[in-house]
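Predicting holo structure, heme C bound.
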Amino acid sequence: MGQAPHQDQERARVWWLIAPLLLTGAAVTGVIVLSMLGRPPAQVPVPAPAADRLFEYAEFRVSEALHDMGEPVPTWALTRPPTREAVALGRSLIHTGKAPGAAADAPRQSPYFTCIDCHNVTREDPVLAESNPAARLSYLARRNGALLQGSTFYGMYNKTGWYNGYWKKKYGSLVDQAQHDLRAAVQVCAQYCSQGRRFTDDELDGVIAYLWHRQYRVGELSLNEDGFRQLAAAFDRAAPDPAAAAVIRSGYLQVTPQTKGEPPADLEKGYGLDGDPKRGRLVFDLSCLHCHSGAPDAPAPSFADARAAAKRIIGDIGQRNEDNLYMILRNGTAQHRAYMPEFMTERLSDQQIADLRRYLAELAAGGGTHGDDAPGTGPAFTPTNPLDRAVTAVFESKCVMCHDHAPRGPAAGIGYLTDLPRLARSPLVEPTGGASTLASVIQNKTMPLQRWSGIAGPTGMSEADRRTILDWIAQRAPELAKPSP
Ligand code: HEC
Ligand code: HEC
Ligand code: HEC
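Done. Tokens:
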């Protein structure tokens, strides 16, 4: 194969590592690696049982794998997989603040925010066992994700504790229970971070079901070759094995580290770090614009005129007040209505603030660029094939209001629906358990959402539109995804 695996195929990359160890023979390995990428050459026989087992292990949900290896189910957790309805309820509450199908004028859980103003729902770290703000920013930039104050919901179900470090100090006894109980942690955020009401018991079950759904899979953990080998052997034996459970636990952070940053002593001077305007622009686009986009329902004042915002922020850089760049990023604003939460140093480092300041200073001085080369935009793809044209038209009319680069940032880290070659290579169209994620959200009618964080979804999605997407996946996605010879 002439092409490296696409960056989004994190899971596939892990199995590049493990496949050669668990299966002997270079030819076999090649076939497995290819089949992991969703395109086994039909003429070469695949040794079915071994390959099937690897697929199966990679897809194991971490909570279930831990339980199989003998860990008790935590008191707050689900004892069996949730129903589809519960997941849908949780998804809807988290994304829109309302139950599915609620009236347009029904009140949201919080009048000021939805959970996804401050939390991603997809993976945001290239290595799950590390919290590295620079690596996270690059990772999010590749996936058009947002950089937010709250940590992602992806894998939150698999942690052992919440509201650690600084938040424990800030919230005190309010978070005693939340320290080891995800249900309590959700309620604290619903009430305090979100400035809304607590969830009812049924709603809370839905939210937990959705978090269960967005948990880690074994194949994406940060383990070395020995770790994977040990796990595969334990899964083969299918008996409780505390050592294997410990290996799983070592593959990701058990709690999210939370360290409060401070504004620099001399605001004018800043942190004394050289800023990189390119990285600063990423911070502005992926983070600030998420809330300051200027969309009608956006929770924060508009920075849609980026130059004007930059002028104001840089003009005030020496002023010690709540709206000063350093003060607001490190201390947030007072928690009332639509406030701005502070960024922990693990989410936005002093270096990244220096980068942002440098970018804003260039923009304010009339330099810099904005709005031309949005991050993540690949070379333009001009559809000529009729099916490509048809599916592009559907995506453009039904999906890109949420899955696009600008102005709001993409939903679910998917900002490239109309970049068909990239979409075709992405894990979204990789078959998992029969149907690809893209196919299943269309079949189950989960997408398009009706509303997301201030953006209205399309009116009406016809059966013909659905058919077009499904046909494109069946006929063109595997075709487009073929590696160049
Ligand atoms: C205005 C921003 C904001 C909103 C809205 C918000 N959160 Fe949070 N949330 C945070 C911040 C900041 C933290 C602490 C840092 C972190 O997430 O690790 C946090 C923490 C959490 C945690 C604990 C995370 C951990 O690892 O310690 C959970 C669970 C949580 N939020 C759930 C929710 C849910 C559910 C909603 C919607 C009802 C929501 N949040 C809405 C900002 C927000
Ligand atoms: C989770 C949403 C959110 C994110 C992300 C966010 N902000 Fe804010 N920001 C707010 C809200 C809400 C306010 C209004 C706060 C208030 O009135 O208390 C605000 C206010 C501000 C203000 C003061 C008001 C103004 O117009 O000057 C500045 C400056 C600011 N934000 C800068 C930033 C920068 C820089 C970033 C990116 C690093 C950023 N914000 C990211 C929500 C956000
Ligand atoms: C109103 C906003 C909105 C519209 C319109 C919309 N989406 Fe989404 N989409 C979202 C959000 C938010 C998520 C994250 C939801 C989640 O993962 O639960 C998402 C997630 C997805 C996912 C990933 C699901 C997963 O479980 O990983 C796919 C695939 C997707 N959308 C495809 C589409 C397609 C195709 C369309 C058009 C037919 C569309 N979306 C229209 C907001 C929208």
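Residues 297 and 454 are 4 Å apart (CA to CA).
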